[in-house]
Amino acid sequence: MRFVLDEDVDARCVSVLTAAGHDAWTVPSAGLSGSSDIDVVIYASDLDAVLLTHDREMVTSRRAMPIGRIVRLKGPEPMAPELLVLALPEIVPQLAATPNLMLVVSRTSTGHLNIKPWYGTEGEQGDAACC
Q1: Angstrom distance (rounded) from CA 57 to CA 60
Q2: What is the pTM of this model?
Q3: For residue 39, how many other CB atoms are within 10 A of its CB?
Q4: Which of 95, 99, 112, 131 could serve as a FRET partner for 69 with CA atoms 20 to 30 Å apart?
């Protein structure tokens, strides 16, 4: 699977992804620094890549244009590589099976992995509960 990391994602996640056998690169390395969320989503979608982000505003972008595959990592940026290692076995099959999907990945207060799909059509209650 191919992954592109948004500007707000710890670049160490590239190593996590490539070690797991995936292609991975960053938005800055693609020459897209400062691009809008929508432009980055279109870029990733055109390359059949999953966009990895911490950006909560991606929820708003998703509602405006529910295309592509996005993984939003909730939590502190320095914890992203650890969270990604834990989540990959579960998120890769979900992403492979669904062409237009946003997954929100977090850890509960007890440390358990929490993965929720978000399709971009949920109402305000879904927004608050999910993202």
Answers
A1: 5
A2: 0.88
A3: 13
A4: 112
| Beta strand pairing call for 101-107 and 113-118 | antiparallel
Contacts of 1 (CB under 8 A, 6+ apart): 22, 23, 50, 92, 95, 96
Cα distance between residue 78 and residue 11, in whole Å: 10
Domain range holding 39? 2-130
Any idea what the CATH number is for the domain that residue 67 is in?
A: 3.40.50
Number of domains within the chain: 1
Cα–Cα–Cα angle for 126, 131, 63, rounded to 5 degrees: 65
Beta strand segments in the chain, E: 2-5, 23-26, 49-53, 69-73, 101-107, 113-118
**Neighbouring C-beta atoms of residue 62, cutoff 10 Å:** 25
List pLDDT tens digits, range 21-61.
999 999 999 999 988 888 999 999 999 999 999 988 876 77
